[in-house]
Amino acid sequence: MPGVTLVNTGGPELEYALFRAERRVLEIQAKLHRWAGDDRHRRFDDLFNLVCDPAFLLVAWGRVRSNKGARSAGVDGRSAFYIEARVGVEEFLDRLRVSLKDRSFWPEPARERMIPKAGGKMRRLGISTVADRVVQASLKLVLEPIFETDFLPCSYGFRPNRRAHDAVAEVRLLTSKKYEWIVEGDIKACFDEISHPALMERVRERVGDKRVLSLVKAFLKAGILAEDGLLRETDTGTPQGSILSPLLSNVALSVLDEHIARLPGGPATSRSQRQARRRRGLPNFRLVRFADDWCLMVTGTRADAEALKEEISEVLAGMGLRLSPEKTLITHIDEGLDFLGWRIQRHRKRGEERHYVYTYPAKKALRAVCQKIKDVCRGTNTNQPLAVLLHRLNPMLRGWCTYFRPGVSSKTFHFLASVVWRQVMAWLRRKHRKANWKAIRRRYCDGGWWPRDGETSLLHAGSISTTRYRYRGAAIPSPWTAAG
Description:
GO terms for molecular function: RNA-directed DNA polymerase activity. It holds the Pfam family RVT_1. Keywords: Nucleotidyltransferase, RNA-directed DNA polymerase, Transferase. It comes from Nonomuraea maheshkhaliensis. This protein is α+β, with helices and mostly antiparallel strands. Helix content is 48%, strand content 13%. The protein has a four-stranded mixed beta sheet, with no helix packed on it. Strands 6-7-3-8 form a four-stranded antiparallel beta sheet, with helices on both faces. The longest helix is centred in the first third of the chain and has 27 residues, at 12-38. It is globular. The two termini are 20 Å apart.
């Protein structure tokens, strides 16, 4: 990049170079976003030079290096820390840029790692090499501002400035306005079954640069090195865990957003038209999607929801995707639904005859965090001081309560506090088997009941106040609008 010299150290020079590179990348992203928005049918033909640009590669390196997975190595056995210490950032990025320019770069297979998920099943993650991660991050920096102009407001997952709370707030708002029937969608093995030809066809609608297209396709076809040492081809899907995968999955699943938006009775239907449809007994509907989790809210009957479910199934089939018959449910808002860890349900307010839609932590999410607390307490050696256990528990509790704070969560927080207290006190009893309650309370609770160790105290979940999340709707700003 003109005026910016990359260095091998991680000191102030690299930080300043990264700062200047981020400013330049943001300016170019703002231009791409503006051009894509001005012409909805424009195909960008010269993007490969941006992918290879030193500023984009440096910012991509910064994203990879700051990620929690920086310590993980791909099939080549090199982590980001190894490259930083042994190779040097400047030399690594220079070699990577040269290999991209002379077309000798080719993605390595992702290293498979199986992690447990709910229900005792396993989820497959693909850990790419650091070089592949940097190139993917650079591709995302270039492609994301372009495709963001095409994504509709009903999509919230893996998009800048959007979060799960926005999706939950919209579901709550719509179900409060007579959208009473809900299709809870579950796409079976979404990331594993996306059709590559159908996905690439949607990417080509915006990208005309054949070098970028071949690079995206190469990452899709890179394969996975399984834990048993066998190399498996990837004929479908986008590997979970890759940097580019969330963007590509949104490109694929936006076919659902666009289909619902085009239908009569969808979000583009005016208020007078919706009222006319209701008078004629026709349904109105709205979609809220967070990655591959989605809800379709319907004003009408259960039969209307069933018909829309079948129509959505046909739309997704064009992308090689299928709905899970067991997990795709049709429920009434009075029965309630679980969405993104929240329980959303309408019931009568205590002391009144009016009914309201409430959001509170789902039982499944509560069971999961309680199990994590038990695992941490059982996995922490009693030879360690109490402060070690508290330092492991407090961030977990704070993060969980922060996520569920904007809801009717006060009783749940108090219940969680009692669960944590019992687990910590049981840990202390195992640590001091000959001590009685009075001695433990005198040593760790200052004669009270809440455990602490010096300056470190156990976070009291019940003391965290709840808030109301303000629905932002279509007013969510783009990070490139202000920059442009």
